Amino acid sequence: MESRDQNSRGRIEAVCVSERRGEVKRAVAAGILQPDHGLEGDGHAGPGHRQVSILATLSIARIKAVIPELEHGAFAENLVVSGLDLSGVQVGDRLAVGGTAVLEVTQIGKECHNACVIREKTGDCVMPREGLFCRVIAGGPVTAGDSVVLTSGREIPS
Prior knowledge:
Elements (H helix, E strand, L loop, with lengths): L8 E9 L8 E3 L1 E5 L3 E2 L12 E5 H8 L14 E4 L11 E4 L3 E8 L8 H6 L4 H4 L1 E7 L1 E4 L3 E5 L7
Parallel strand pairs: 5-6
Antiparallel strand pairs: 1-2, 1-6, 1-11, 3-4, 3-10, 5-9, 7-8, 7-11, 8-9
């Protein structure tokens, strides 16, 4: 399947996990996306519609301008993506990640929790508006540098 246009291709900048919910995620060398579960070893993985979270490097860069010491995983994102315009993504769109994984966007944004350090320091948090949440349709390995291709509709990219 063809991607929507040249702005629908990007790459993974970081893969992040935390052992438990409520902990800041940390970047890891690689991960395994498991179908209908999420990122292996991540505290947020499990059944449901928010198995994997994604945030764009552009979203993170705006906050890093105020808090330069932020590291990947600070927003509890599993995948940090660059070179892909996520602003037009819709629920139901699919992302082909690496060679075999397919994610389906199930939610855009989520309520920021009360103790959000980023919101306290900057007055803003991008995850409520710009974070993508996905269900893993097809699993596979994921590492920094892997491609990410956005497709429209509910078709699995080939």
